[in-house]
Specification:
By secondary structure, the chain is an all-alpha fold. The chain has helices spanning 3-21, 25-33, 39-60, 67-88, 94-118, 127-144, 148-154, 162-187, 189-215, 220-239.
Length: 240
């Protein structure tokens, strides 16, 4: 079976999960897709697809965005890290990228499962550690368009309420993925990915509608545990 058809299924699953839980469309689609396809081939498809959803949600929740945190703290560091990650990526082999991404996914999923099992309350990091983690989050975003795991860890213990935290993160992904999409346009990779991208857009809509329907019918805590368990298995699959 054509791996790009499998990617269509993965995109549908990823956006359904995001509509239920509020996180992870690129992380999930990329972690599953990377088992069958090289990461550099996947990014020009998955990143532009994500800005459609994050752009809509950024406009919808614009009043909840905490602009000082976004503009003064997160974006300067993550934008610099994203550009560095993009410039470094051509120097890394596809197999090394896959292994590094697998390690990131295992750390992320394992940490979340441990946190949920132990009812762990996150504590704030020292300011220097927070900034270093944000720069690292930008680097992983430039490499894998998956800066979320490190950024959420960097913001542990933040005083932002849930609505402001979520809206601010959505604005981060819209901004950085728009930057990456512009870069893909300039380097020519977006043009070659465009035909596939057009076919995948309806799956985003179906996934969101399906996720909204499931959101009111499933136990979200148990669902999140299943998602992280799936990611943990996928991370190990990427290593082998």
């Amino acid at each position: 079976m054509d791996p790009w058809l499998w990617l269509a299924l993965f995109i549908l699953v990823a956006y359904t999960i995001e509509a239920v839980t509020g996180f992870g469309s690129i992380v999930i689609a990329l972690s599953l897709g990377a088992i069958l396809l090289p990461i550099p081939a996947l990014l020009p498809v998955l990143v532009p697809l994500n800005i459609l959803m994050s752009g809509y949600l950024s406009v919808r929740h614009r009043r909840s965005i905490h602009w000082p945190t976004l503009l003064r703290l997160i974006l300067p560091l993550m934008a610099a890290g994203t550009l560095a990650g993009y410039l470094v990526r051509p120097w890394l082999s596809a197999s090394l990228l896959q292994i590094a991404f697998g390690v990131l996914i295992i750390w992320f999923a394992g940490r979340e499962l441990w946190r949920m099992a132990n009812n762990h309350v996150p504590r704030a990091h020292p300011a220097g550690v927070t900034r270093g983690l944000m720069l690292g989050a930008g680097l992983t975003h430039g490499l894998f368009a998956s800066g979320g795991p490190l950024l959420v860890y960097a913001l542990a213990g933040t005083r932002l309420d849930k609505a402001r935290f979520r809206a601010t993160l959505i604005a981060v992904w819209f901004t950085l993925n728009s930057l990456l999409t512009l870069i893909f346009l300039l380097d020519g990779s977006l043009a070659s990915a465009a035909p596939k991208l057009v076919w995948y857009i309806p799956l985003l809509v179906v996934g969101v509608l399906l996720g909204e329907w499931l959101h009111h019918r499933v136990n979200e805590q148990r669902f999140r545990q299943l998602v992280f368990a799936m990611l943990l298995v996928t991370g190990f699959a990427l290593l082998v």
